[in-house]
Structure formats: structure tokens, C-alpha cells
Amino acid sequence: MTKNNRKPSKKLTDLDAQIIIARLATKEYQNRIAADFDVNPGRISEIKTGKAFPDLQRPWR
Fold first, then answer.
1. What is the pTM (predicted TM-score) of this model?
2. Are 1 and 19 in contact (CB under 8 A)?
3. Which terminus of the chain, N or C, has less C-beta within 10 A?
């Protein structure tokens, strides 16, 4: 029997999402932002598209 040693992604807060949105607005690469927050790049994409944290303002909308 093998153990799964993977850790779950970090849970992002509203403040994290605001920082991510600001960094996305400067055209920073999503994978670099994800690495800084220790999350999957898909989480950054969800914030960018508004699927996650939909109540936050995005400058590109």
C-alpha cells in the first residue's frame, strides 16, 4: 500500500486574490504568480476569468 505524499494547494484569501488581480493587470505570467502563491496555475486563471472571487473588481472588465 502506498501513501499519497502530495500536499493540497494553499487556500487563497480575498487579499491574495486582490494582489493576484493587480499582478495580472501588469501582464505578469500566470505561472509565475501561481508559483509565488504555491497554487496551481489553474487557480490564477479562475481568478482572472472571474470564476473565483467574482465579487472583486478587475481592471480589464
1. 0.85
2. no
3. N
